[in-house]
Design goal:
Elements (H helix, E strand, L loop, with lengths): L1 E5 L8 E3 L3 H13 L8 H10 L4 H7 L22 H9 L3 H13 L17 H13 L1 H12 L1 H44 L2 H8 L3 E4 L4 E5 L4 E4 L5 E6 L7 E3 L6 E6 L11 H10 L3 H10 L4 E2 H8 L3 H13 L3 E6 L2 E6 L1 H7 L1 H8 L1
Helix pairs in contact: 1-8, 5-7, 6-7, 7-8, 12-13, 14-15
């Protein structure tokens, strides 16, 4: 499954890269709401939660807005990008009831499986609004309650959202943003330099985790749960680097103002995010009993192919084929020692697959 971005027709002025405080705040709130997705941020999440314990209930109410689907409200609505969180929140405060409802309704529902009616149709008391609330309620009670409030009093809900975002900023985000922003701005400057003299599809294929160019034309495939093809032009493409969004990659293309991609900025997040193909190859490499036995021999010490063949009672060509499969999957590293080549299990790679996998190899 994937989203394909068609970048054809974009000029230099249509390519924007920069940090966006509101999107980073949303990513931070997602970490607090779903910490199991972000074990690498456990220490930060504990500190942030402790800094604002009085926010816990209100953050829980609005958690559907920064769950997997991510509400469009928290992404840039225009270029140039807002220079600060206050500026971005002021833009939300200026939204009309219909504009706010249109941005937030898909986020409350949390799926794009079926198109939503226009904001004007989602007025309290209408059959369309009642059907929308029922759809949200079927997903969860929390979503249903948010949907009821949204259609009955969108501006009141807008003010509540703004209040909780400002409270989160005061409690923990402002200090965090002062630390994160310089590295993200430096990253964005490097991206802008690359976009200035290289095809955008090449830059995105190198920049975004699990991305790849697909032909013909300026097209990039992103490994996502959705299946979609998005023609970006004539809208600008906005690239928003993030330190908290890892391991997620978020694409927002439903708004007419711009297409936004929020992605983990390299250098601020853990390395080594896999494509689905890489993960498949690694797991399949370990399904063979013969390769699993070979891994166990390689766990403790570097061993040559001939020694492995002697230990396993196999021929050297058979062992070489198994080693090649494991090496291609990144599970074995081979180093030359004079005329000999020694092989050793990449235990750090196995560890990233999970403690149970490593324990199974080691026992």
């Amino acid at each position: 499954m994937s989203i394909v971005l068609d970048l054809g027709g974009l000029g230099p002025a249509d390519l924007v890269a920069g940090p966006f405080a509101l999107s980073e705040l949303m990513a931070s709130l997602h970490v607090l709401a779903e910490p199991e997705h972000h074990p690498e941020a456990a220490d930060w999440a504990a500190r942030a939660a402790a800094a604002g314990p009085e926010l816990r209930d209100e953050l829980s109410v609005f958690a559907p807005l920064w769950a997997r689907f991510r509400c469009r409200l928290f992404f840039p609505l225009a270029v140039p990008l807002a220079a600060s969180l206050d500026e971005a929140l002021a833009a939300i405060a200026a939204l009309s009831a219909d504009a706010f409802l249109g941005l937030v309704a898909p986020g409350v529902l949390g799926t794009s499986a079926r198109p939503l009616p226009s904001a004007h149709e989602l007025r309290a008391g209408t059959t369309t609004a009642e059907d929308y609330v029922r759809r949200c309620l079927r997903r969860s009670y929390a979503r249903g309650e948010l949907a009821r409030q949204l259609v009955s009093a969108p501006l009141e809900l807008r003010d509540r959202v703004l209040a909780v975002l400002r409270a989160a900023d005061t409690a923990f985000f402002a200090d965090d943003w002062r630390t994160l922003r310089p590295a993200l701005e430096d990253h964005a400057r490097k991206v802008r330099r690359r976009l200035a003299d290289r095809p955008p599809a090449d830059v995105l294929a190198e920049l975004l985790p699990t991305a790849a160019r697909v032909g013909p034309g300026e097209r990039v495939r992103l490994d996502k749960l959705q299946i979609d093809e998005v023609k970006v032009a004539p809208r600008p493409l906005v690239l928003v680097p993030s330190a908290r969004v890892w391991p997620h990659l978020t694409v927002k293309h439903e708004h007419p103002s711009c297409v936004v991609v929020q992605y983990p900025a390299r250098g601020t997040t853990p390395d080594g995010q896999l494509t689905l193909r890489d993960l498949h190859d690694r797991l399949m490499a370990l399904t063979s009993p013969a390769r699993m036995e070979l891994c166990r021999h390689l766990l403790g010490e570097p061993i040559t192919t001939s020694e492995l063949a002697a230990r396993l009672g196999s021929s050297e060509p058979q062992v070489s084929r198994s080693l090649r499969t494991l090496r291609d999957a990144g599970l074995v590293r081979s180093t030359r020692d004079g005329k000999l080549v020694r092989h050793r299990l990449a235990t750090d790679v196995i560890q990233r697959l999970g403690n149970d996998v490593l324990a199974t190899v080691a026992r």
